[in-house]
Amino acid sequence: MVKDEIAGRLEIAFSQHGFAQMSVAELKVASGVSLRTLYRYYPSKESMVIGALEHRHQRYLGVLDNESIPDGVDGVLAIFDTLARWMSTDAPNGCLSMNAFSAYPNNDEVHAAVQQHKEQLVQLFAQRSARPDLAMALFLIHEGVSLAWPTMGEQAVVSAKDMIRKLLR
């Protein structure tokens, strides 16, 4: 449980302050544990990034993969409503995965964590849309919203939902 709590706190710290600005000393404070405990679970800053990304991935998929949301057009539109809430509360600075990818472009572990996250989103769109042939297109619309959110806000979601209605009907 301690490792997961640390990962959650690291996720928040990286989301709020970015990857470059956070020193290990600041991450220790943000995690709320001793440096020894932090290093026991995450022996490097890169492993802290990976832990934060994995924690974020599980939280995000948990939010999106709501059993009460129907499959089909309405289900995909609901995902974008959820994305809007997520971006406004949890990711106002954009996609944490892509921010990590930009901050660590040559780190294979960061790249693999981001890749896994994105592939699972494509799979979710294939399932929820009931149109596996359009899963990549829906994923790219999702990514566009995530990228545009810091400057466009809610308008990015409104435009995305218009495109989705045209694509799926």
From TrEMBL:
DNA-binding region: 23-42
Span of domain HTH tetR-type: 1-60
Protein origin, superkingdom: Bacteria
Gene Ontology MF term list: DNA binding
Protein's UniProt keywords contain DNA-binding: yes
Pfam entry (one): TetR_N
Keyword terms of this UniProt record: DNA-binding, Transcription, Transcription regulation
Protein name per Swiss-Prot or TrEMBL: HTH tetR-type domain-containing protein
